[in-house]
Amino acid sequence: MPNAPRVVIVGGGFGGLSAARALGGEPVDVTLVDRRNHHVFQPLLYQVATATLSPGDIASPIRWILRRYRNVRVLMADVAKVDVAGRTLDLADGGSLPYDYAIVAPGASHAYFGHDEWAPMAPGLKSLDDALEIRRRMLTAFERAEREEDHDARDRLLTFVIVGGGPTGVELAGTLAEMARRTIREEFRNIVTSRTRIVLVDAGPTVLAAFPEPLRDVARTSLQRVGVEVVERTQVTAIDAGGVRLGDHYLPAATIVWAAGVAASPLVATMGMPLDRAGRVIVEPDLSIPGHPEVFVVGDAAAYLHQGDRPLPGVAQVAMQGASHAAAMILRRIAGQPTAPFRYRNYGSMAIVGRGSAVADFGWLRLTGFAAWVGWLFLHIAQLIGFRNRASVFVQWAAAYMTRQRSVRLITGSGTRR
Amino acid sequence: MPNAPRVVIVGGGFGGLSAARALGGEPVDVTLVDRRNHHVFQPLLYQVATATLSPGDIASPIRWILRRYRNVRVLMADVAKVDVAGRTLDLADGGSLPYDYAIVAPGASHAYFGHDEWAPMAPGLKSLDDALEIRRRMLTAFERAEREEDHDARDRLLTFVIVGGGPTGVELAGTLAEMARRTIREEFRNIVTSRTRIVLVDAGPTVLAAFPEPLRDVARTSLQRVGVEVVERTQVTAIDAGGVRLGDHYLPAATIVWAAGVAASPLVATMGMPLDRAGRVIVEPDLSIPGHPEVFVVGDAAAYLHQGDRPLPGVAQVAMQGASHAAAMILRRIAGQPTAPFRYRNYGSMAIVGRGSAVADFGWLRLTGFAAWVGWLFLHIAQLIGFRNRASVFVQWAAAYMTRQRSVRLITGSGTRR
Question: Which structural domains are found in chain B, ordered by start?
Fold first, then answer.
């Protein structure tokens, strides 16, 4: 459609894909831009980091997901700036994309709260490359421990610290504890992997702060039962090549993972709009930005202050519902109709605690233990995009559950990337 | 067993694993050393490079494969030297491993025939990291072509050259052609992926030179049918960042893969033994090395000249049978018995040409087309180590065959590794 309005979508996450699907087949000319060629099912990233699933199980090429929409084009490119005044996306390699409407959904990245120098020692978990790097570090620590003859050095190699007690930190700690205590136990000759120390640290008063208290208590107990040390109300004050300082106490640790903080993608700062403390664009009730009704920001990069007493959480449901709303508002504006405010419908939140154990809060229903775990598993597999992924994940989870083996415990990559 | 004879095995490929299994449960103290933590099923590496299978589908942790053998220890370490006189393995990071008996099976790597400067432009395919790098380059070429507006530059991005017409080169070219012509065709808007040029170059008179002539002809025709340009009797005389020189003709190409030559691992040169032109140790009839009946070399690093008129081929069967033989000879020597010469039993060779097409030579039986492909598929899946791998590969191949989709078309890694 040569004269159709041009809509650009920045980001191929949950938000960007939902926007593209909502606009597929409509009389608009859509271009989705992402710097990666694949969509990642982020709630399962920790399973790649802990060597339970392969990258291909939780990711699909964006082109493939959107191939049926003939009015949607996918470009792999890095957006350097959203030029709101000029109505153009500036690409990092020099190109540019003019637009009539824009949906900006670039997501969030790790935030080290002014300590970016910690990043090389404590990688975060936002992309497949992050997950593969964490997997490489965790597996390499066990390999080096098997060869280490000094007692203290071996203890350090077998100490894993996870900073941040949100769902990602809890899921990482629980799964790692199971791997150390069960899966790999009989494979080593010189070390006792079940003595691995896994420390989950949170600066706040509790893990899973967003969940109701009874569910938090269940999660904490489940983690402790599989051997995770849960350290609450404790701040990480330093991270160096040897370990981590927790308050006044220095803990030698070879592997540290950062699951503590996120901030909006730095891209949205190029828009020149008011941001909140986490770098998110403060959007209007209809998710557009002040003074530019043709530009919408959705997902983790948006601060939506019009519903409830705090911003909406950075979860897939918020991004997907927001993106569908933004797409609908664009079609309304093209049709000359007024826009409407966004209303988020909360269907619940869940976190997995270990093999066969989870907590789920649906508002009207709270589940813990095995029931919550089965619910979590089915919801997530049902949401996975693409037949192969669904079937393959199911086969692998069934196999992992029955045999407790981890067949993707592969150390790849040179480790010099960071 | 504190006083049991110490056997070291260098390498966790087909040879090393077979040796470890043969010695598992015997009255020896076995240490297997590999610089990677995983065994790779090399005949399927090209499937990872062409985004059909995930790394986890064709690789398993060596520790996991050998976990049941309590007298076998696995170390992840880089062997820098086999000190034959001192009966010690010197490790790259400074450690050392004394031995009473050694089985050296480090395999082969790519050989650029004096042109090591070609390596960054034309990666070979020997490890998972190699396969992921080739996958990244192939997929990135299509992504860049979709964005390229210059006609010549786009043609260069859509030209893929595979150097070497052995089984790996043939399999890569055939699978890549199918991906370009069928799998990804409807996903791009600016380029016509079915016009992709795939050029398979061989310096010798024919592709698949080790196969009987009728099978070679079938393979060549099959490749041409899926659109591969087969260029025989043509030498690669130069490779640079822009493309490749074939004889006198310069072909601009963005993606070049080296499948032309292999040489024994440089490790065996540290043993101070006579080597053949490909850098392989010329072994005695029982696979030990001259003057050191306690050291055996097997697999791709050994030149075995005592059977037939040319050295045994570098295939899994030769490595596995040789390793089992070496293990048996060690047990004989410990028991004070004389060793016996190695006899290789050839069960046949196969190469896959494309979706639903292969050639197979069992000596007494030659198969082509679909029958050979089904045979190849079942033999390879049956040999895959580990339940998960077998089930998962089967599901994925079935899905790929039915739907022709490639769900692991993920661009990961920074690309700065080489």
Answer: 6-35+77-110+262-334 (3.50.50.60), 116-260 (3.50.50.100)
